[in-house]
Amino acid sequence: MGTLVLRMCALLTLFALATASTSDAEPLKIRAGWVGAPASIIPFMSAKEGLSRHNGKSYLLEPIYFSGSPLEISAMASGELEVGTLGYSTFSIAVLNAGLKDLKIVADEIADGVGDYFSLNYSVRKDSPIQKVEDLRNKVVATNAIGAGAYIPLEVMLRKSGLFPNRDYRIVETNFANMKPMLLES
């Protein structure tokens, strides 16, 4: 069985267990955060009739887009989100800083750089004078969200090269879908 199918089964099982109740009860509203498609299956779970066969009956799935997992922490802490797609960079922050001590890991949705899985990459234009990390001095660097899983390795790479944010380069936050157009317009 494919990894995506296993992940979808895990999430559907979570929803089924979370909503086990009598058929007369109102469906439980489950607000689930997601960051990037197609990496996240959450926005696709209600895309096809019958895929989430209990959606609308025992639960109502409401996918909510976030530009990065750090923003999901605030939504979870304020009771506006039941399921978050927190990464390695944000799970501990949610527990230690936001006080979400009752978090449970129910599925592993994204694997980066393992086996044949996609690995994060950083890009510059072919005609750019940027040829090595040090060339990013006094440049603008884009990320989806400061503190997100895509940002942490970027900052580590830059710091190892002696570059620090707000001193040696500027960070802008933008959606993944906007990064390529921004790069091409620069």
Describe the structure.
The structure is a single chain. This protein has 186 residues and is an alpha/beta fold. The protein folds into two domains: 3-96, no CATH class; 133-185, no CATH class. It is built from five helices and four strands, in the order H-E-E-H-H-E-H-E-H. It has helices at residues 3-18, 69-77, 91-96, 151-160, 176-185, and strands at residues 28-34, 59-65, 140-143, 170-173. Strands 1-2 form a two-stranded parallel sheet. A two-stranded parallel ribbon has the order 3-4. The radius of gyration is 19 Å and the shape is elongated. The termini are far apart. The mean pLDDT is 85.
SSE layout:
Layout: H1 3-18, E1 28-34, E2 59-65, H2 69-77, H3 91-96, E3 140-143, H4 151-160, E4 170-173, H5 176-185
Parallel strand pairs: 1-2, 3-4
Helix content: 25-40%
Radius of gyration: 19 Å
Q: What's the number of structural domains? A: 2
Task: Give the N-terminus to C-terminus distance in angstroms.
Answer: 44 Å
Strand order, main sheet: write it out: 1-2
Overall mean pLDDT: 85
Keyword list:
single chain; 186 residues; alpha/beta; 2 domains; two-stranded parallel ribbon; 5 helices; 27% helix; elongated
